Amino acid sequence: MAETDMPSDAPIRPPSRIKRAWESDLAWSFRHTPVAMISAFVVTLLVLAALLAPLIAPHNPFDPATLNLMNGFTPPGEANAFTGDSFLMGTDDQGRDVFSTILYGMRISLFVGFSAVLLALVIGVVLGLLAGYLGGWTETIIMRVADVQLTFPAILVAMLIFGIAKGITPPEYRDQMAIWVLILAIGLSDWVQFARVVRGATLVEKSREYVQAARLIGRSPFSIMIRHILPNVLNPVLVIATISLALAIIAEATLSFLGVGAPPTKPSLGTLIRIGQEFMFSGEWWILFFPALTLLALALSINLLGDWLRDALNPKLR
């Protein structure tokens, strides 16, 4: 037998987790979908730019000590006539670097979007599991509340919740709590779709044999829902969460554009767009254009990723 020959009874090493992940159907679909790869690159680039804003941004736009009103309305790439300073994307009416404000504003938009989706996901998954597994009056009450909420546009529900929550907040804490109130408003307006999908999947899963076996060995309903049913209903939840992230970011921008979202001291992309539209017809187009383009690229990329994930996780579309 040659030295390089392996004995027939030698143990076969299982592939590593990284190799299994790389060879999975989801990874294969991602590598062969150019739109998904480009969208993931854009989302990753924007998220990293927002997280590293203090290191990347040339200026701190929210530090009054670094602002110079003489730099106001400087066009992109041109030197200011008074100070000689130039800015990549120009400046706004207060002399703030538009590129820096976009980076810092995107941090707030992403934080609000992620937090609101997480809140909606937790509420929707819990209520969906309870409605689908317990049934009876529990299901009736939860789903009728969901049906009533669906009769109103989500943005109106968010505005109503934001107004009520802000109204009961002491005036001296309203600016500090505005971001958290915004998260609460968007999250409570977006839980319904999670609950409806999880309820439908739970109704299917609870009749499966593994759930029947768990009942026979004495598992509690809570244990069955968390340990057995929940892992099998997560695929559609992940798809909805990805698409809802883009919708939550747009909802935050809409509320901030209407003046009922992020405070002026912590402007998000929506606040920057609201400020920019005031100067759109006076020639300072860049104040509106660049924040709007950033919001469009972020929301569109996340939506395209959600569409790919939906197709990749749906066995009927493979």
From TrEMBL:
CDD domains associated with the record: TM_PBP2 (cd06261)
Primary subcellular site in the record, as a coarse category: membrane
Family matches, as InterPro entries: BP-dependent_transpt_permease, MetI-like, MetI-like_sf, OppC_N
Domain ABC transmembrane type-1: 106-306
Record's bilayer topology term: Multi-pass membrane protein
Family: Belongs to the binding-protein-dependent transport system permease family.
Keywords noted in UniProt: Cell membrane, Membrane, Transmembrane, Transmembrane helix, Transport
A GO CC annotation given for this chain: plasma membrane
Cellular localization per UniProt: Cell membrane
GO biological process, one term: transmembrane transport
Keyword Transmembrane helix carried by entry: yes
Transmembrane segments: 35-57, 108-134, 146-165, 177-198, 233-258, 285-309
Species assigned in the record: Roseivivax lentus
Entries under Pfam families matching the protein: BPD_transp_1, OppC_N
UniProt name for this protein: Peptide/nickel transport system permease protein
